[in-house]
Design brief:
With 219 residues, the chain is of the alpha/beta class. The chain has eight helices and seven strands. The chain has a single domain, classed as Rossmann fold. Strands 3-2-1-4-5-7-6 form a seven-stranded mixed sheet, with helices on both faces. Strand 1, helix 4 and strand 2 form a beta-alpha-beta unit. Helix 2 runs antiparallel to helix 5 and helix 3 runs parallel beside helix 4. The longest helix is centred in the last third of the chain and has 15 residues. The protein binds S-adenosylmethionine. S-adenosylmethionine binds next to helix 4 and strand 2. The site of S-adenosylmethionine has 20 residues, from helix 4 and strand 2.
């Protein structure tokens, strides 16, 4: 019998969760608000609010110094991770949109972490293929086009240090991942989840955080 212990996440309960997470840094809060004000149609792309403190927590937990992010949008996840990096830590942020990431650049400067973030505007697969080889990446956050998740994975797992962490967002794809009739992003995420499940280079867990969050640690 597979019985869930997850309570229904009502608005009330979700508010409670947010209220009992570490409060957002004022610049994080402003960035969430500005994104909704300036980009109302695209704001849904933003990483869920409760994932900001989680990403900061994971950076501190792993002691990460070298981070690669795939999918930056207006910079909330990058800001959350950069705030937790030590001063000499670096985050390479990959995105294709100058317009969206411009909001991120402003916020990173305001938060005093702009010098920790190296934004690369290009299709992420090109940026990743051009990265140095060897094992030097401590933490990866995957949050861009779902069709390419497996390609990103194959570029990044070899570059991870042993014990390094990949955090992949949207691995339940709006709950559509189990619908065999759903193609597009849902099918891509299904293939990605199957790839991780079969990958003996990592240990992993798929968590029911937000839209599904997979943590994979390189053996
Ligand atoms: C879900 S949003 C990322 C949200 C972001 N992590 C945050 O904290 O708000 C996905 C982003 O991936 C970017 N993207 C889509 N296809 C891409 C590609 N081929 N290469 C790089 N970035 C891409 C989009 O421009 C968009 O900003």
């Amino acid at each position: 019998m597979r019985e869930t212990k997850n309570p229904e996440l009502t608005a009330d309960l979700y508010g409670y969760v947010l209220d009992h997470n570490p409060p957002l840094d004022p610049v994080q809060r402003e960035l969430v608000d500005t994104t909704h004000q300036k980009l109302p149609d695209a704001a849904g792309l933003q990483t869920a609010e409760e994932q900001g403190p989680l990403l900061s927590f994971l950076v501190r937990l792993t002691g990460a110094r070298q981070i690669v992010e795939v999918g930056t949008f207006t910079g909330f996840s990058a800001l959350s991770m950069a705030l937790a990096l030590p001063e000499d830590g670096r985050l390479i942020a990959c995105d294709v949109s100058e317009e969206w990431t411009a909001l991120g650049r402003e916020a990173w400067a305001k938060a005093g972490v702009a010098d920790r973030i190296d934004l690369r505007i290009a299709p992420a697969i090109e940026t990743l293929r051009a990265l140095p080889g060897g094992q030097w990446v401590d933490l990866v956050f995957l949050d861009a086009d779902k069709d390419s998740y497996i390609d990103y994975w194959e570029e990044l797992v070899p570059r991870l240090v042993p014990g390094g962490l990949i955090v992949a967002d949207n691995t339940l794809f709006h709950g559509q991942v189990t619908d065999p009739a759903a193609g597009g992003g849902a099918a891509a995420i299904r293939a990605f989840n199957d790839r991780i499940q079969a990958d003996e280079r990592v240990d992993h867990v798929l968590l029911t955080v937000a839209d599904g969050l997979t943590l994979a640690r390189k053996r």
